[in-house]
User: Which sequence fits this backbone?
């Protein structure tokens, strides 16, 4: 077992070569002898520190490189929106799996031709394809991809065992919907600039750029790609047959990691690329990862057939998917009942009052209890000014009381504005200024500086007592309450803002 803190992929071949030398010597009754290396890992560490210099000095190598990365990575999305099957958990489990993604020899040869035409490497072509696919799947127009680089910038390091690998963040720029050939050129230019500024260790770069930290995701990028080009790592042991045996790895570091190995036949002709897509089980099902892999191969096939065609127009669906999109949704249009969400819920509460409606670790509410508590809170919100076509911000933890609050807001005729207090303060403040809710619900201090909003803290004893004194009857049964309409707003949700300013989308009761 070789720990990654001590070795990188290139080192494996060096270790196995040295094991082979030792084994051959011992079976022959000799003591193994290796050539003395001109440098060691420690020499490289000292050299790197001297090269970078004082990062606070804008004229030092380290200072200039950090300044480059500040500009190159400005405006990156803090989290890349991906077509996940589940919401991202608060803390990543790092569990996952791998699905195969292979490129046949004929497509391999065509991709090499595209690389030559655009003075690019195979890695750049594959990165362009991966970025284009992620953009098509909802990732936006700027796709940050984490890329490992060997870090062995001097031939004297080739025989040294150690961890020299560094990680770069390369952005794939999809603005303007370029053709695939143009996109490869953009990726090449970005990569070459990045390679010229690759000496700052990634952990130092994260400290310098200081992105929002989260236990749920990797900083600066959440998808990675690698093209393995290290020499073969099979040991040569006299008298023994040795072969690589792949094993299943259930641990993953990123949301998605696309890994390839390029192969050639005995004559040096392209023989295909073989690899796999590692996926986080927190976010994706295996079937989803397999679908992403198939779509990538399909996009690359379409790209080499017409490199000038905009990447937004390249085919990524198979016939079954296309048939489902174009024909599967046709036919009888379902009839949507002319009712509001509170009306539908109240019918269910009347039909099954004792059934469990919502529960968390500490609370268990029946339909009747949930309805009664929501009614009491709704009366309090109505008295504070909530009503149809207004919004109430809901900044509460994800427990059973959140269901009470959302239902209460809907019962007033107002729509709710979900607020994640874990989001950056500037985003929360923007949403509050833009949506202009009349009220806010929280369990602590207001989440952001937004003047003009009255906040009710559900943990405040006086507020709790006032709510408990309210009626438990349904508000729309009260003569003084104006009923809401199915076309009134049920909630407003904001886009991620990865393509610019977040935008509020109003969703009606009928839509829900």
Assistant:
């Amino acid at each position: 077992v070789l720990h990654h803190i001590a070795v990188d992929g290139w080192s494996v071949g060096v270790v196995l070569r040295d094991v082979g030398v030792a084994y051959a010597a011992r079976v022959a009754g000799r003591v193994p002898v290796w050539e003395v290396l001109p440098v060691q890992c420690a020499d490289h560490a000292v050299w790197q520190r001297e090269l970078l210099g004082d990062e606070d000095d804008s004229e030092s190598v380290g200072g200039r490189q950090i300044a480059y990365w500040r500009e190159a990575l400005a405006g990156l999305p803090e989290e890349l929106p991906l077509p996940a099957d589940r919401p991202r958990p608060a803390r990543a489990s790092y569990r996952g799996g791998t699905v195969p993604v292979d490129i046949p020899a004929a497509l391999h040869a065509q991709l090499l031709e595209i690389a030559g035409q655009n003075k690019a490497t195979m890695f750049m072509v594959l990165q362009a394809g991966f970025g284009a696919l992620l953009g098509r799947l909802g990732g936006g127009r700027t796709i940050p991809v984490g890329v490992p680089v060997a870090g062995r910038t001097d031939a004297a390091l080739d025989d040294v065992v150690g961890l020299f690998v560094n990680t770069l963040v390369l952005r794939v720029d999809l603005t303007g919907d370029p053709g695939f050939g143009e996109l490869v050129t953009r990726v090449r230019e970005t990569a070459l600039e990045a390679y010229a500024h690759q000496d700052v260790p990634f952990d130092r770069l994260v400290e310098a750029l200081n992105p929002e930290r989260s236990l749920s995701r990797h900083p600066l990028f959440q998808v990675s790609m690698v093209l393995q080009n290290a020499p073969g790592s099979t040991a040569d042991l006299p008298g023994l047959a040795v072969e690589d045996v792949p094993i299943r790895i259930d641990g993953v570091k990123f949301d998605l990691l696309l890994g390839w190995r390029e192969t050639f036949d005995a004559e040096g002709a392209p023989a295909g690329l073989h690899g796999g897509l590692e996926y986080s089980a927190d976010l994706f099902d295996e079937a989803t990862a397999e679908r992403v892999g198939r779509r990538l191969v399909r996009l690359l096939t379409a790209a080499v057939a017409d490199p000038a065609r905009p990447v937004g127009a390249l085919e990524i669906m198979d016939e079954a998917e296309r048939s489902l999109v174009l024909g599967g949704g046709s036919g009888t249009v379902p009839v949507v009942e002319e009712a509001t969400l509170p009306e539908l819920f109240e019918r269910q509460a009347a039909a099954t009052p004792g059934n469990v409606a919502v529960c968390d670790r500490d609370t268990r509410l029946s339909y009747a209890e949930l309805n009664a508590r929501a009614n009491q809170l709704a009366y309090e919100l109505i008295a504070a000014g909530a009503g149809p076509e207004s919004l109430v911000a809901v900044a509460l933890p994800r427990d059973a009381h959140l269901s009470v609050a959302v239902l209460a807001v809907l019962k007033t005729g107002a729509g709710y504005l979900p607020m994640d207090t874990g989001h950056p303060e500037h985003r929360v403040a923007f949403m509050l200024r833009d949506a202009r809710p009349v009220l806010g619900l929280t369990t602590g201090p207001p989440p952001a500086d937004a003047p003009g909003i009255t906040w009710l803290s559900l943990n405040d004893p006086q507020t709790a007592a006032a709510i408990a004194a309210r009626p438990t009857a349904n508000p729309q049964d009260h003569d003084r309450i104006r009923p809401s309409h199915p076309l009134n707003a049920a909630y407003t949700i904001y886009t991620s803002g990865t393509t610019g300013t977040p935008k509020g989308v109003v969703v009606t009761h009928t839509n829900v």
About this structure: The two ends are 53 Å apart (CA to CA).
